[in-house]
């Protein structure tokens, strides 16, 4: 079945899509609960022979498939290619009787959208009889292709090496702590991999590293506040100011110390002497907090033009120098906000935003198997806003090999909106966390310009970008940037992944776009969220599933085959321009403890050119406003 035709059948609108899908699901439930013996419906001899011959031919051609879970589109696509499904009639993909008794909204949480079938009751009964006949032949035969999104459903011990299966055996990058540790060596390097720096607190040394990062960020933020205020013609000096002028000198001395350490390659770990000089740092934090929350904060020094020029010149110089050694300075903003994520939760549950060092330290004790563990990730304080609201992107990608890495990016996906206008002065979850199951609570009180389901598809975002004069950034920055980051993650994970031949997997990556159109990878999900919780997802997923078959079946047999909206990431585009080695210990391989592994940073002239191009266009755009 052509994926475009399938998609056109799914022109569902948010006002009616739940009702339409529910009708389709109930129809399917009824057909599968029919008592065939009471219908006096049997396959005639010709039909029995036809089904048996088709099944035997599929065995010979190695075209037997199984679907573990509810993915009717996969079944339709494979049957249309001459494959035969091995389907156990006693193990249905969903509990049909339960869904018959469920309210309509429950259809939003099935694994993938139901198919709107034109079959009548008689045709449905005939299809079940054909399936039963095939099962009688196939029940002791192996499947050649298994589609499943939950690894636990696979019996790995009995799985034939010739069976193609849609689950990889291990992928550490799909856990919050695994991804952070996998990319630990890249967090302070200038690479094409855009990933907010993380801290996974396992030891006292990890805690100290976070404190150093936190303090450094606060010092640099102070410079930003001073420079930005003066550039905006805001007077920061008065004789009765509420912040001591000596703070500026203190910050300049500390930043110079940081720069000297970086330039000299000093490996000193306790640069700020936080534990032995807590009073000094507590005083600094009090004044720094005033600067971030009090718009009237001023330094207690009589204003003169010469003073202002001198302070500006020195702070501006230091700020430009710091940028060389702090690749993520742009996303840091000025409030030093960090996002605290439980490693075991999903869908936004348990996430906390905080800028208070003591609160963070209390929340994040060293890792312990007896309690929740957390990842600290630098919050991106300068996100791209649409209608004043924060958005993020769910990008699907398909991995068909890990040795070497072969990855396919999908050219469609969905854009999730936060319901209320962005502000770093308000930490409410409706403003900062875009997870679907979380934002659904706030749809009725959303910003009036935000779509009803708090979601767009990529085409709608691209239209918006064109409307604001940024028609090039999707093709030149955002999509290539996401592709580069995904490829870099997979390359970084090759040493910790166990790859089985005849394996592929669909993943869902979450990206946040900065206000200068650079995509930052937030996390990767092994179960990529195909349930039709919105009409946007309900429209996209059947097309996506159809295109997966195009890549994993059609393209596998014919490299000239149509791959739908999947585009292959070509490794030649990611050749590094230099071979600088980065030390990266592998925390997941106990046999490698105490040894050093090395990765080459993924640094590309192509990426730098795009960033420069984007910065130019962004500045023009801002000036025009």
From TrEMBL:
GO terms for biological process: cilium assembly; cilium movement. Keywords: ATP-binding, Cytoplasm, Ligase, Nucleotide-binding. InterPro entries: TTL/TTLL_fam (IPR004344), TTLL_monoglycylase (IPR051437). Signal peptide: none annotated. It holds the Pfam family TTL. GO terms for cellular component: axoneme; microtubule cytoskeleton. One of its GO terms (molecular function) is protein-glycine ligase activity, initiating. It is found in: Cytoplasm. SUPFAM superfamilies: Glutathione synthetase ATP-binding domain-like. It comes from the Eukaryota. This is Tubulin glycylase 3A-like.
